[in-house]
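Priority: medium. Attachment 1 of 2:
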């Protein structure tokens, strides 16, 4: 640890270049851009919290969901990876129970963690996320305490890259290192972050987003036992595949989509409960299929279609993981594209039924199919209804794909990402 001035000088002198290369990519321009980004954040910290403070740097990545669309909340299987877009913080310890957090472009969040009761009137606020993370860690028996922090994030909000999870994991990572010597494991960090989002922020979410951000790199997660999820890193060097991972931001309207997201989970659970279970993972597919006539009288048709998606998506995750482990990228692409079709046809989270004429995700998927059919893969990404799609594009087609996407959806809509090797962490020089 160092003072803010010492830290800034070390960054400017290249002392953090190796750490930046590991997190963001080794090319000179990328490393130089991160130097500027981190120094700007330090300047922001000094403006808000003074100079001469002993500080440290922290990072938590966004994530890309690669398989398992809308399955985690019903204890399904997922495949995800951390990416080079992240939320970062500079933080200094306080000697009281107050957390002061200043995000770039936003007002100061002042959070008193001496009392940790959730407050529904604070739903949807970042201050509630902060308090919830502290509460989740304390409930697990870990130490919590106050700090001053400035944060910034380049994880696009509403992008399906989990900007909120990155922020939650970032706060948990700060507490982990300031008060617990970095001893809190990645799974516990993720669970505290999810607890915060569900109970304090008021958003029903599964554990995928937080787990991928916390654990890092390619990771497959089986949530059959949510108390003890089975987590396995997948040994695959994507950089050598000959493909680029693209996230397309369609710039759709994200307002008032909470009910749409909640309905996916609720309808899947309604099918499970109609069969005497709590979640679909507790239901056998054959039993479900043989019970369709009875279920049709108990739940709506869309719920049944979403159940079909759940069962098929679990199988596709297994196929995708096996394909990567066996270096069979063609089979992997097939699993990804099949996932996209299932989300469109069965899960129906490509556009909101509240606004059926706005179908930017559908259009992006259609364009991707026309350009990449037989060569790449494409699917809805994240929660859906608005936001982003994912595409695996042959490197020799990348320029054409980017040009077409940017022409239709606007400059900068196509983001080319790398897979980051670590999750939430202290940035070490």
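Attachment 2 of 2:
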């Amino acid at each position: 640890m160092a003072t803010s001035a010492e830290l800034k000088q070390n960054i400017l002198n290249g002392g953090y270049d190796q750490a930046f290369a590991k997190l963001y990519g080794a090319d000179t321009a990328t490393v130089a851009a991160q130097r500027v980004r981190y120094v700007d954040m330090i300047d922001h910290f000094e403006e808000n919290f003074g100079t001469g403070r002993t500080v440290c740097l922290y990072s938590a990545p966004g994530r890309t969901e690669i398989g398992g669309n809308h399955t985690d909340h019903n204890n399904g299987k997922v495949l995800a990876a951390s990416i080079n877009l992240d939320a970062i913080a500079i933080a200094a310890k306080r000697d009281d129970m107050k957390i002061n957090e200043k995000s770039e472009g936003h007002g100061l969040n002042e959070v008193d963690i001496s009392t940790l009761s959730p407050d529904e009137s604070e739903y949807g606020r970042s201050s509630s996320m902060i308090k919830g993370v502290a509460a989740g860690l304390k409930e697990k028996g870990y130490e919590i305490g106050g700090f001053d922090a400035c944060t910034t994030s380049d994880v696009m909000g509403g992008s399906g890259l989990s900007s909120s999870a990155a922020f939650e994991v970032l706060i948990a990572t700060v507490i982990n290192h300031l008060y617990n010597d970095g001893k809190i494991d990645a799974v516990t960090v993720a669970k505290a972050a999810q607890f915060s989002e569900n109970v304090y922020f008021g958003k029903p979410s599964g554990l995928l987003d937080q787990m991928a951000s916390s654990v890092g790199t390619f990771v497959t997660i089986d949530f059959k036992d949510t108390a003890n999820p089975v987590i396995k890193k997948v040994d695959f060097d994507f950089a050598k595949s000959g493909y680029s991972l693209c996230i397309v931001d369609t710039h759709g309207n994200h307002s008032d989509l909470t009910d749409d997201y909640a309905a996916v989970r609720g309808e899947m659970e309604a099918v499970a409960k109609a069969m005497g279970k709590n979640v679909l993972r507790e239901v056998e597919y054959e039993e479900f299929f043989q019970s369709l006539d009875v279920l049709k009288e108990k739940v709506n048709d869309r719920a049944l279609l979403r159940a079909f998606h759940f069962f098929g998506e679990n199988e596709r995750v297994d196929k995708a993981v096996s394909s990567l482990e066996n270096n069979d990228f063609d089979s992997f692409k097939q699993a990804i594209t099949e996932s996209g079709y299932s989300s469109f046809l069965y899960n129906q989270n490509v556009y909101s039924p509240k606004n059926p004429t706005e179908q930017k995700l559908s259009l992006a998927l259609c364009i991707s199919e026309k350009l990449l059919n037989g060569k790449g893969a494409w699917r809805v990404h994240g929660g859906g209804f608005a936001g982003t799609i994912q595409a695996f594009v042959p490197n020799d087609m990348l320029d054409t794909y980017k040009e077409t996407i940017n022409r239709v959806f606007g400059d900068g809509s196509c983001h080319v990402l790398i897979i980051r090797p670590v999750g939430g962490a202290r940035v070490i020089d």
